[in-house]
Amino acid sequence: MTLNLSQFDYSLPKHLIAQKPVSPRDRSRLLVLNRNTGSINHKSFFEIRNALGKNDVLVMNNTKVFPARVMAKDIRGRDTEFLLTKKLRGRTWEALRRGKVRVNDVFNFAGVNFKVSENKGETVLQRVKENAADYRYFPEPDIPPFHPEKIAEKISLPELPLQKRNRFHEEYGLSYADAKILSEDKNWADFTEKVMSELVEWLDSLPESKNQAEKVPQKIARLAGGWITSKLMGILTEKKMEITDVKFSAENFAELIALIYDNRVNSTNAQKILLIMAGSDTDKDPTHIMEEKGWGQVDDEKKISGVVAEIIKSYPKQATEFKAGKEPIIKFLIGMTMKATEGSADPKVVEKLLREKLK
To answer: What is the pLDDT of residues 184-221, one digit of tens each?
Structure first.
């Protein structure tokens, strides 16, 4: 049998290693095995007289243990095993080896070569085991009945990532890709749970809400999932932050998603708001930031009409080209209008007004 020394390599605390004999010596530990009952008792050595009965014989063993089993290699690199039985003189040992061996055969053990100096050619009977006593057998103690089903009733296993991923998809309507990303990390999964539970309430509480959240669960879920996995994760990666480092709550992030969903703020300004929320040391409300910065989406045609007129006046060449049939030019004019309004104008209203004025 080959022994791997690494199996015996473990850390043993110094306070558990005997540094010197116990004092007094008869207080050393004694293990007493009752062969009739199989019970084991831990005693001290001075109590050995209590374990001895009438006519018992006490045999004292003053031998010591040395590493007798040696795994070596012959000159061809083949494994061979020796059992050291007796130290003769100096570095010479008497040993047993299965199989043939010749005088002057050389073997290598742990980088050291040793040579066979004498071969007795004897077959030695080492031991015979005939019954249970030879194997140090003793009956097992009584073990109480084990009922795992009763224990299982009191133990609840946590939700595993795969189960959470499926639930995020089925319950919240998140895409499989977003559900996989958000379920792999517990902190992100907990944040997502809170955001999704807040979303419906926030949408329904907005006075300007044109849609009820329960009618479009998948749409709002995909919107939230996309903003968490792309926008929020991207910002935190750039700032070298974790989701546990941010000061804003899941409730306020859900409010930001609700504002985007309800078209109260466009994507460009929503990302500006999120940057402020992520960089703040306090839990800032996205609605307050939007109103303070004037980033709310404007869909009032009267307010936008004047800006559109100024853009047409500032870019006469592009306006003429659009009238001549160059349809892609409309995208340029929309972009200039959005820039002039700092992204607050509703792009759909801007396009509608541009087409009306450039007929």
So the answer is: 999 999 999 999 888 877 666 655 555 444 444 678 88
In terms of domains, do 75 and 184 share one? no
Task: Tell me if 6 is assigned to some domain.
Answer: no
For residue 213, the enclosing domain spans 161-293
Q: Based on the fold, state whether residues 179 and 270 are members of the same structural domain.
A: yes
Antiparallel, parallel or unpaired: β 69-74 and 106-109: antiparallel
pTM reported for the whole predicted model: 0.50
Give the CATH number for residue 318. 1.10.10.410
| Domain's final residue, options 115, 135, 151 | 115
Residues 99 and 176 in one domain: no
Report pLDDT for 207.
Answer: 58
In a domain, 205, yes or no: yes
CB 183 within 8 Å of CB 229: no
Task: Tell me the C-alpha distance between 11 and 203, whole Å.
Answer: 59
Residues 6 or more apart whose CB falls under 8 angstroms from that of 235 comprise 274, 275, 278
In-domain check, residue 280: yes
| CB-based contacts of 150, cutoff 8 Å, min separation 6 | none
C-alpha 202 chain-centroid distance: 33
- List, as one string, the DSSP characters of 182-218: HHSSHHHHHHHHHHHHHHHHHHHH-TT--S-GGG-HH
Answer whether residue 353 is part of any domain: yes
Picking from 40-54, 184-198, 199-213, 268-282, which range would have the lowest pLDDT averaged per residue? 199-213
219-240 residue pLDDT tens: 888 899 999 999 999 999 999 9
Provide the domain count of the chain: 3
**Phi, psi dihedrals of residue 298, rounded to the nearest 5°:** -100, 125
pLDDT at residue 49 greater than cutoff 60? yes
Instruction: Find where tokens 């309430």 sit.
Output: 201
